[in-house]
Amino acid sequence: MSRDIDNAIKQYAKLYKNTLIKENFPEAEKKVQKYCSRLHEMAASEAFKEHCVYPTTDAVLIYAVIAMCLELRESGLSNEDIIRFTEILFQRRRSFFDRLIRLIDLLPNSFAIVKGWNINDHAKRVKDGSIVYDYFRTTDSTVEYRISRCMYVEMFRYYGIRELCKIFCNTDIRAYAGLTRHVRFLRHSDLSDGESCWDEIHRK
After folding, report:
1. 63: closest CA among 172, 189, 170, 168?
2. pLDDT digits over 54-81, tens only?
3. Which SS3 state, helix, strand or coil, does residue 179 take?
4. Which among 57, 72, 89, 109 is least surrounded, fewest beta carbons within 10 Å?
5. In this structure, what is the dihedral angle of CA atoms 47, 52, 56, 60, given to the nearest 10 degrees?
6. Nearest partner of 198 among 150, 144, 143, judged by Cα
7. What is the reported pLDDT for 41?
8. 184: buried, middle or exposed (CB in 10 Å: 19+, 13-18, 0-12)?
């Protein structure tokens, strides 16, 4: 296992421990040791080698979250409680992103920025094959796409917890919730619990 992966595991283990303590879980240290053991085993697996080949996806992060989900599910938490736990765990990182989104929302060309994000992301995802689009369409005032396969979901599916990929699927909803002045976001479905990820983004 590379030093970078080992250091990343230590970083996620620290976040996991801090959140366990914050949420008053008993035997936090024991739970962290079990989490680290599981994540090291997962990161050394053949599945990880297959999943870490996509430059636009952070497979170590995704596996770190999957390992947390599996540990928390074994502790008896519901899917809703697991999602809430990860929201608390990544709160600091998301707070920085939320501030950035609020700044972009103030700009009169915020839709153009969002459109550029989507075009660039689409090109990168198609290039590395991490996402399969049924279609991707843009006009001067809209972006619409439909996704039938996503490696985020496939990794969660591999470990039998496809529905908990909602943790990552909700990232778009959170981002667009902060873009209210010039952008309107519609999510019809996502792949964590639907047949496709179908989104529309409109200029207000």
Report:
1. 168
2. 999 999 999 999 999 999 999 999 999 9
3. coil
4. 109
5. 90
6. 144
7. 97
8. middle
The pairs formed by 88-94 with CB atoms below 8 angstroms and a separation of 24 or more are 88/19, 88/22, 88/23, 89/15, 89/16, 89/18, 89/19, 90/15, 94/174
Where do we find the tokens 């972009």? 104
Question: Concatenated DSSP letters for 59-91?
Answer: HHHHHHHHHHHHHHHHTT--HHHHHHHHHHHTH
Tens digit of pLDDT for each residue in 142-167?
A: 999 999 999 999 999 999 999 999 99
Asked whether the CA dihedral 127, 131, 135, 140 is positive or negative, the reply is negative
E strand or H helix at 186: strand 183-189
Bridge partners of residue 185, in order along the sequence: 201
Q: Given this model, what pLDDT does residue 5 score?
A: 86
Cβ neighbours around 172 below 10 Å, total: 15
Between CA 34 and CA 13 the distance in angstroms is 10
Cβ neighbours for 112, distance < 8 A, ≥ 6 positions apart: none
Instruction: Assess whether pLDDT exceeds 80 at residue 1.
Output: no
- Strand-pair category, 142-150 with 197-203: antiparallel
